[in-house]
Amino acid sequence: MVTWKSTPHLVLRTETGSQYFPLSGNSCWTIGRSEDNQMTLPDRWISRAHAMLQQTDLGELYLIDLGSRNGTFVNGRRVSVPVRLNNGDRLTLGQTEMVFYSPTKTRTDTEDPDTEDSGATAVLSVRRLISVMVVDIRDFTVLTRQLDERILSEIIGTWFRRAGNIIREAGSWVDKYIGDAVMAVWFHTAQGIAQEGVSKEEVLRICQALGELHHMTRELSDRYPLPFPLRIGAGVNTGYAMVGNTGTGDRPDYTALGDTVNAAFRLESSTKELQKDIALGETTYHYLSALEASREVFEEHRVTLKGYDRPTLTYAGNFDDLDAFVRVSYQEMEV
Q1: Which residues face 299 on adjacent strands?
Q2: Which of 268, 295, 155, 294 is nearest to 216 (CA)?
Q3: Is 84 helix (H, G, I), strand (E, B) or coil?
């Protein structure tokens, strides 16, 4: 039988004994003083939303500081970017210390390989039409070399937390935190009888979220003494992908795999070559082109994406033009 001891978990040692936090049935766990976290720690030195654990598709667990006041530490070193946890790592939040364990899961010959306990993960893969957004912090490596580690941790953690809030309000969630980038996924439903597509409202909501991420980033940049302004780049791609539920029945956790996802990352990288802020995939732009103002914001380009044999058609633009586009487009739909 599978138990919490055979899954990754945190151990908190207290005066009254050890407390165990199993890390299963989800891919994201928030830690903080507030009761709305998955792990609530009554330590006054811990922020209300202090840190987060994110599990990747490969089962690796990353610790992400969420801009906490007093920092998050792994083996005595302050976390300034997402850090992959290894078995036996010591985590320090405020005055609270925990140990991360990731035992190797084994199964006895008497266990039925087709059955799991009530906390096990169900995997249901279906082909769905999705939009993937990848947002990356520009020149992050340079920033890490020039900025004090404490300030860097506070800025990046706050950026991750606020980015998650913006994306959730736009109808999605952060599927992955990857170093200095986030990935979000929107699922699209049928538009009419036997027809699947993306409505103008859906694709415009993604553009609005991009604009809000840009403004949030600029606001953070203005608050701190940085060697250069904080900037982001983004890639958005729409297409079909295999979507899997890697959560439990009462706590579903969806993720997507396939070329649509890979191309979104490549499109984001292409913005540096194009000297633009945003790169849209051809299908994304197709749905967006139903709004007339899109032609004034996004220019057509052909780029060679890493890993692709043929040049890819993309439509690229800048954040400076995005606000006006979103505002005019909403007015256009109201008429």
Answers
A1: 316
A2: 155
A3: strand
pLDDT in tens, 150-197: 888 888 889 998 998 999 899 888 888 877 889 999 988 744 434 557
**Tokens 């993720």 found at:** 255
Q: How far apart are CA 19 and CA 23, in angstroms?
A: 13
Q: What is the DSSP string of 281-294?
A: EHHHHHHHTTSGGG
- How many residues are listed for the chain in this entry? 335
On the CB side of 116, how many CA atoms lie within 13 Å of its CA?
A: 15
Question: pLDDT of 122-144, one tens digit each?
Answer: 444 677 889 999 999 999 888 88
The candidate with the shortest Cα–Cα distance to 94, out of 66, 67, 62, 72, is: 72
Distance, CA of 330 to chain centre:
27
Single out the residue of 303, 278, 128 nearest to residue 208, CA to CA: 278
| pTM beyond 0.70 | yes
pLDDT reported for residue 253: 53
Residue 26 and residue 52: Cα distance in Å, rounded? Answer: 12
